[in-house]
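In response to reviewer comment 3 from the previous cycle, which asked for concrete evidence that the modeling workflow produces usable outputs, we include below a single protein chain processed end to end. The sequence was submitted unchanged, and the resulting C-alpha cells are shown without manual editing.
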Amino acid sequence: MDLERVLESIELGQQDRVQRELDLYNEENAQCFFFNAEERERRKQQELEEFRRNKFRDHVPNTDSDYDSDHSDDPDLKLRQRLAEALMGFLRKELQPCCLASCLRTVRILSRDRLVLGPLSTAHGLSMLARLAGIQNCGGEREGDSLESERRGLRELGDNGEREEEREKAGACGAEEEEDGKGKRNRGVRAAFAWGKGKDAGEGERHGEKDGKRWREGEKDRGGEGDQGSDQGQGGQRDGGREGERDDEEDSRMEAMKALCNVIYHSQGAQEHACRLRLLSAVTGRVKRESVGLGGQGEKAPPPGQFYDLRLLFLLTALRPELRGQLAREERGVSVLVGALERALYARWGESYEVLGDPKAPPLPQKDWQLVVEILKVLFNIVHTVQQGAVDEENEALYRHLAALLRHCLLLNCEGEDRKEELQGHTVNVLSALPLSCLDVLVSVRLGPGSVEYLGINMDCVEALLGFMERRLERGEKLRERLTPVLNLLTESSRVHRETRRYLRSKILPPLREVLCRPEQGSGLRGQLVRLMTHLHTDLKHCAAELLFVLCKENVSRFVKYTGYGNAAGLLAARGLLAGAGAGGSRCYSSDSDSDTEEYRAARARINPVTGRVEEETPDPMEGMSEEEREEEARRLVCMLNRLARDQIIEPMGMMTDGRLRPLGGEGSNCNDTMTEEPEEPDNQSERDSD
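The workflow returned the following C-alpha cells.
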C-alpha cells in the first residue's frame, strides 16, 4: 500500500477518496501487529541466541511491536508517523460517519506500533479519542501545555467543523509533541499487571487490538501466524468485511475505544495524561450509568461497548497502581463492578446470599464470558489493594454479595474446558482477596439435586476448587502463578470453616494405609502437594506446606506422619516447631481424633520418621569393627565436618529453647576447640628420608 497516496488524499480533504484509500490500507493491515518484518526476524534470532546462552528465557515479549531499537532512519516508520499525525488533524473536521469510522480504524491499526504514538499519546490526542468514543466529562487542567486552547475547542461528534487555521495549528503542535511522545515508551508495562504477579500482560493488547476476539486454541503469540480469518470484535464488527448490522456511529465509537486501549497500553506518557484528564472517573461513570439502566435481575443484556470500558479500567488500574485506591474509594468501584457482574451473569437471587443456578441452562456465551472475565480482573486489581483488616458492616454486606456471585462463577458451565478453567482462575484470584469473614458464603447454600454433601453441608464450591487445583497440578505449567491463589484460598477456608477443613482432609489426606512408599511418591493429591513442599519457589512450597499443616490441625506429629520429617522440616523451622508443639498451636480446632488404620499401626515401629515410610533393613556399616576403629571413624567424620564449616560450606546450627534453629556461636561454631585436625599421612619419600 502506497502511504504517500493516502497522505495526499488526506491533504486534499476529499472524504470519499480518503475513505477508499483507508479501506484498502485497513484491509491489507487488518492482521498486522508488527510493521517491520526484518526487525522482527532479527529480534527473534537475538532472543534465540540469548536463550541458548543462558539456558532459560528471562523475558518473553507479548507483542511484536515491543522493541526499543533506533528506527529514526526507517522511511516506512516516518510515513506511518506522518499518517498518524495527519489523521489526528483530519479527525477534527466534520466527517461523514462512514469516513470517520474508516479513519478511526486506521488509527487503531497504527496504535499497535508504539513508535508512532507521538500524536496519539498526548493529552490532546487522548481527549479527542475519548470524546469520539463517547466518554463524557473527560478533561482536566494541564499546566504549560501548548495544546490547551485546542483542547477547549474540541467538539462533540457531530458539531460544526473547525476553522482552517486551527487545523493547521493542530498539525504543527502534533508534530512538535511527537518527539516527546517517542521518548516516553513504557518499558515496564508487563511488571505492572496485577494478575498473580505475572498473570497475562499481553492480554490487554490482544483484546484491544484484535477487538476482543477469543484466541483460538493453538494460536501463537507472534503477529499474524495465528491471526487467519476475520478480526471479530465484541459486538460483531469485522475488519475488511464487517457486516452492516451496526451503524457507522457505533462503529466509530467502538474503534475509538479500541485505539484508546492500545495507546494506554503502549505509552507511559499516555497513562500519565489519562490520570490528569480523569479518564478513570469518566469511564467508571459510564459503566455505572449503563449498569443502572439495565434494570434489576439482569433483565437486559449489557451494551456491546461495555467490554472495552472494562478493558480500559483494567489497563488503568493495572498500569497505574495509584488509581486502584481512587477507583475503590472515590468512585465506589467495587459496588459498580459488582452490579455490572450481576447483570452480566443474569443473576437470579434466592434466599440470603444465594444465586440460583439452572443445571439445564446452556453454556455461558463467549461475549458474556469475556465480559465476566474482564470484570473479575478489574475487581482483583482494586480489592486486593484496598482490602486490609476488618471491614465495616456495609462493606461486609457488599463483599458477601460479591462472594455469592463468585460462587456462581465457579460453578458456571462455559463453552470449552479452557474457558471454564480461565474463568475459575480469575474467580479464585478475587476470592483469595476477600475478607475471611465472607468465605462462609461459599458453603452456606441449600442442598439441591446432585449437590455434593458432607456432614449436611453443600460442598459443590469446595469440590470445584479442589478439581481446579488438581487440574493445574496435573498440567505442571507456571505452578507458582497458577497454584498459589487456590492454595491460599483453600488454606484460609479450612482455617475459618471446620466442615471445609474436614472435607478437604478426607480428599487430600485420607487414612494412611500405604506405608511402603515415600509421601512424595504418591500419585494422589497428597503426593503432589508433598512434592511441592520442596519446590524451587519459596512461595509455592510454603503455600503447599501451609495447606497440609492446617489440614493436620497444625499438629506437628500428625504433620510429620503424613509428610515425613524431611519434607516438613522447612515449615517447622520457619515456625519454630522443630522441637514439637501441642495440637493446633495457638488456634482452637475441633477435637476429632486421627484414627490410625490397621496397616499403619502394624508398621508404625518400623517407619522412618524422616522419610515417612518403612525402610528396607540395611547391614550395619560398623559391624565387625573394633572399638578403636569405630572411634577412629568417628574422629575422621568430625574432622571432615570441621573442614566444611571452616571453609564456610556449611554452618553449624543448634536448636534453641524456642524451637528455632540458630547458628552456633563461640566454641560451638568450630570443631577445632574440641577436636584437632587429622594429621596428614606421610608420603613414601618422607618415610624413606626418615629411615
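Residues 637-691 form one domain. We consider this sufficient to address the reviewer's concern, and the full set will be provided in the supplementary archive.
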